[in-house]
């Protein structure tokens, strides 16, 4: 079992930025795919971005160059840097490790 702790969510105005982090409690973090997902009430959880153990990244179309996913294996931590946030980005953001383990979720709210 791997536990993931997320942080970094909050309330921002449109056009603002946030950086989410997700820290695992095991050093084996480095071998796993890291993914960030988001979910709003009444809708399915959707993939935002992922980064492989080799550093290959993948983004959802709606990211449109605004977000960057990266990882620091020495810190067992994955990150999602989000710029130019818009109201439609409002959701609970979850990190995932190895398509198996989930963080507790961190809320992101974008409004005036």
Report on this model:
This protein is mainly β and 112 residues long. It has no helices and eleven strands. A hairpin with a 6-residue loop joins strand 4 (34-39) and strand 5. It is globular and about 40 Å long. It starts with a strand and ends with a strand.
User: What does the oligomeric state look like here?
Assistant: single chain
Instruction: Give the number of DSSP strands.
Output: 11
Strand content: over 45%
Distance between the termini: 40 Å
**Percent of residues in helices:** under 10%
Structural class: mainly beta
- Our Rg estimate from Cα atoms comes to 13 Å
Largest sheet: 7 strands, mixed
Order of helices and strands: EEEEEEEEEEE
Number of helices: 0
Characterize the overall form.
Answer: globular
Q: Spans with pLDDT under 50 lasting ≥5 residues?
A: none
Mean pLDDT: 96
Short description:
This protein is mostly beta strands and 112 residues long. It has strands spanning 4-7, 10-12, 18-24, 34-39, 46-51, 57-59, 67-72, 77-82, 91-97, 101-102, 106-110.
Looking at this protein, list some descriptive labels:
mainly beta, 112 residues, seven-stranded mixed sheet, globular
Summarize the topology.
Elements: E1 4-7, E2 10-12, E3 18-24, E4 34-39, E5 46-51, E6 57-59, E7 67-72, E8 77-82, E9 91-97, E10 101-102, E11 106-110
Parallel strand pairs: 2-11
Antiparallel strand pairs: 1-3, 3-8, 4-5, 4-9, 5-6, 7-8, 9-10, 9-11
């Amino acid at each position: 079992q791997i536990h993931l702790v997320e942080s970094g969510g909050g309330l921002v105005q449109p056009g603002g930025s946030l950086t989410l982090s997700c820290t695992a409690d095991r050093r084996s973090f480095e071998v796993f795919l890291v993914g960030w997902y988001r979910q709003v009430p009444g809708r399915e959880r959707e993939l935002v971005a992922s980064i492989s153990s080799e550093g290959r990244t993948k983004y959802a179309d709606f990211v449109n160059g605004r977000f960057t996913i990266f990882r620091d294996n020495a810190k067992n931590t994955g990150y999602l840097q989000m710029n130019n946030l818009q109201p439609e980005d409002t959701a609970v953001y979850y990190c995932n490790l190895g398509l198996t383990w989930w963080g507790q979720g961190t809320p992101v709210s974008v409004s005036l």
